Amino acid sequence: MSTPPSSAGPSRWKNLGERTLLSTRIFEVRSVHFHHPVRAVDRDFVVVAAPDWCNVIALTPDGQLVLVRQFRYGTDEFSLEIPGGVIDAGEDPVAAGVRELREETGFVGTSARLLASVRPNPAFLNNHAHFVLVENATRSTAQACDHDEEIEVSTARVDDVLAWARAGKITHSLVVCGLMHFEPLWQARRLT
Amino acid sequence: MSTPPSSAGPSRWKNLGERTLLSTRIFEVRSVHFHHPVRAVDRDFVVVAAPDWCNVIALTPDGQLVLVRQFRYGTDEFSLEIPGGVIDAGEDPVAAGVRELREETGFVGTSARLLASVRPNPAFLNNHAHFVLVENATRSTAQACDHDEEIEVSTARVDDVLAWARAGKITHSLVVCGLMHFEPLWQARRLT
Predict the structure, then answer these.
(1) CB pairs under 8 A between A and B
(2) Choice between A39 and A191, residue whose per-residue pLDDT is larger
(3) Which residues of A touch B78 (CB under 8 A)?
(4) Structure pTM?
């Protein structure tokens, strides 16, 4: 078995302070002043400080996943995704996932738990993305989208959704990530 | 077989123009003025315009993957990843992957091709991330890191790397994504 490289090697830069370059509704751009302890050089690097995000793998009683399709401003395109959104300050990631699922789709499950967490982009984003598994999800209430959200809800068989991710029909990297983390659990259930 | 939802449903907002809020060395933050054609409302949304990125699945002749470990300014942590970086303006994604692999690790392969592409975050990023498969990669030259890069290079068995991604030892979402896109190809080879 291989082992990950040890902690020897590259140095840990030290954060000596930061200043905000820009504040927006969804993130802050900061210039962070770092010091390299061995080479004794200082450098400013740009970091985007964003709240943590969550995405929800919502499994229906008949083995389908809940999907959302919406227009995305970043790419100027429609995107097929699993539900998700921004975690409120102080909000538990699992609670946020349950909330986002309910608001975006009207689906409510009988159990929810944290499946995995990743870093959206360690190079310049400081936040986490959490993947929440909700089981026995059924359409229980009305959508309660934000004012500017228009979300089309559908369900599809897990195997189809995994195939769409691998075929490039699902392109949101965090959604692909969440599905990868869910896949072994799904395969294990199929074998039992 | 399920089918993705059709193109009916949510409206496509129309981009009526944008202005730059902030320019940094690695991206531009823009305020984009969108118009909703049905509801006839206008809204400004924040979009980060970034160059495309690439990550490289570099397979050695003995079935290992080339890994890099480095300090990341966004998360203020070390991160274990596959090689990758920013694609230069006008540069082909596959050429960029080959270049990043050589610069960061000194590894050079005998063939390279595009494996898949994703959107890092359609909500606010306008760019693509491309995954490049390089085969028969061997250490052929010296590292040529950027001035502020310190990169520790290692190799590890493919199965171990996939297990690390699923166990949370590899957390960069785009790296997890790239590994997910590589996995079926790897499984198929094992069966032949």
Answers:
(1) 225
(2) A39
(3) 7, 10, 12
(4) 0.94
